[in-house]
From TrEMBL:
PANTHER family: ELONGATION OF VERY LONG CHAIN FATTY ACIDS PROTEIN (PTHR11157:SF153), FATTY ACID ACYL TRANSFERASE-RELATED (PTHR11157). The chain crosses the membrane at residues 12-29, 62-81, 116-135, 179-197. This is Elongation of very long chain fatty acids protein. Belongs to the ELO family. GO terms for cellular component: membrane. Keywords: Fatty acid biosynthesis, Fatty acid metabolism, Lipid biosynthesis, Lipid metabolism, Membrane, Transferase, Transmembrane, Transmembrane helix. It comes from Loxostege sticticalis (Beet webworm moth). Its EC number is 2.3.1.199. Its main location: membrane. It is a multi-pass membrane protein.
Amino acid sequence: MADKKPFQFQRTLVIYNFIQVIVSCWLFYEGLDAGWLRTYSWKCQPVDFSRTPEAMRVARGVYIYFLAKISELLDTVFFVIRKKERQITFLHLYHHTVMPMISWGATKYYPGGHGTLIGVINSFVHIIMYTYYMLAAMGPQYQKFLFWKRHITTLQMLQFCVAFLHSSQLLFYDCGYPRWSVVFTLPNSIFFYYLFYDFYYKAYGKPGERNKKQLENGGPKRDNDKKEYVKHEYKVANGIKNGNNNDGKKVD
């Protein structure tokens, strides 16, 4: 495998990311319409273990969310066969290990209630994230629309802040939802926030630092500079270095 050329799956990646966007949209809508914008309490919400249509609808959404987390393991598979090992970081591995485990536990023991808000927020973030991945996979002509990559990381950090605050309410309100769950959710939210902040800092510098440097250098880059930057980013993303592709052929 080490001697073989990276596989290219442009069409497959576009379809895969599109499906993830559709599934995330459905999960986001179901979570809001089945609970959080209707009957659920934002302070503390117990799990409805009955077989009423409302309870079964929420349970179905939790189950589909679990299946979505399993399907997202393909992210790692695509990284490996495309030889994008640098993207298989500790953050990536931890995220794709913990989330299927948590969603499995929720599906089996607590398919609804207070903890589902985390899944709803996460589904919204994934709508944005997989839309970005889909556009990135569609080719260099779409790279100019992908200036908002770093804001996805900011959104991911924000979701863990909301998850922490929402879960911490269980310490003050008792509605029957297991309080012991905060032993997992609160430290995990903090740890995830730290990992994403560390990624943001290494990739983009401190929040606001780039804008400050641009002002010091006379403002944002000119259009020509932006075009060259986009061109460079596309080459790096597709394994093109120093003007040569994976076959050693010269490219523009």
